[in-house]
Amino acid sequence: MIGIFYHRKLKRLVIIELKLDEFRSKHKGQVELYLKINLRLIFIEILVLL
């Protein structure tokens, strides 16, 4: 499960992923791919709102 939050004091997006099993290197790759896809969508939405 992955959650994306906006930290108001830091003015940054915070990504939290919860896993029930041990950390594996493939998990890092999954999060990086998720970030690339979703950050593009977030920036597109921001540009549309401006």
Largest sheet: 2 strands, antiparallel
Helix content: 40-55%
Distance between the termini: 30 Å
Instruction: Calculate the mean pLDDT score and round it.
Output: 79
What gross morphology would you assign?
A: globular
Q: Ranges with pLDDT <50 over ≥5 residues?
A: none
- Which class of secondary structure composition applies to the elements? alpha+beta
Portion in beta strands: 15-25%
Number of helices: 1
What is the C-alpha radius of gyration, as a whole number of Å? Answer: 13 Å
Main attributes of the structure:
single chain; 50 residues; two-stranded antiparallel ribbon; 2 strands; alpha+beta
Describe the structure.
Helices cover 50% and strands 24% of the residues. With 50 residues, the chain is α+β, with helices and mostly antiparallel strands. The chain has one domain (2-49). The longest helix is centred in the C-terminal third of the chain and has 25 residues, at 25-49.
Structure at a glance:
The protein is α+β, with helices and mostly antiparallel strands.
Strand and helix layout:
Layout lengths: L1 E6 L4 E6 L7 H25 L1
Antiparallel strand pairs: 1-2
